[in-house]
Amino acid sequence: MSEEKKTRLHGFAGILSKQVEPLNEMEKFKEKFKDTEVKVLLNAKDGKWAAMLIIDKGKIYVEGIKNDPKENINKKNAGWDGFLQTTTNIFLQLFGGTELSTGKVIKKILTRKIKIRGIKHVLVLLQLFDL
Fold first, then answer.
1. What is the per-residue DSSP string for the chain?
2. pLDDT of residue 20
3. Mean pLDDT in each 10-residue stretch from start to end of the chain (131 residues)?
4. 2-126 belongs to which homologous superfamily?
5. Are 9 and 17 in contact (CB under 8 A)?
6. Cα distance between residue 71 and residue 19, in whole Å
7. 73: which strand partners?
8. Cβ density class 27-37: b for 16+ within 10 Å, e for less
9. Using CA atoms, how far apart are residues 42 and 31, in angstroms rounded to an integer?
10. 5 phi/psi in degrees, rounded to 5
11. 120 Cβ contact list (under 8 Å, min separation 6)
């Protein structure tokens, strides 16, 4: 019972977890990511929790990280390979809807509504969306 309580995710991390964890059952996902080890931190800057998306040799899971103080989410403390930060609303558009095109995403990056570090690792998210 106590282990179950520890793994309960809050806020944005909980939402993201419900979105991506069904991928663990897909053979296509397991095959495509069998050699991949990457950690991408997704921070909804208007929320209290950030989500660390971890792909580890064909398995995917999410960990919650409190994003206050900001030191909790820096690369040294959190250990991420890629970083994506924006508002919860834009995240929901990215993950849930088809109304956000590549052009609109680039515009949001240029206008600094989306902040990306380690873009090579963040691009793994595009491969996840294809599945």
1. -HHHHHT---HHHHHHHHHHGGGGG-HHHHHHTTT-EEEEEEEETTSSEEEEEEEETTEEEEEEEE-SSGGGGSHHHH--SEEEEE-HHHHHHHHH-S---HHHHHHHHHTTSSEEESHHHHTHHHHHHH-
2. 85
3. 54 85 90 92 90 92 89 90 90 68 78 89 80 65
4. SCP2 sterol-binding domain (3.30.1050.10)
5. yes
6. 27
7. none
8. eebeebbeeee
9. 24
10. -70, -40
11. 82
The tokens for 13 are 């991390």
Task: Find where tokens 């390979």 sit.
Answer: 81
Task: Tell me the one-letter amino acid at 62.
Answer: V
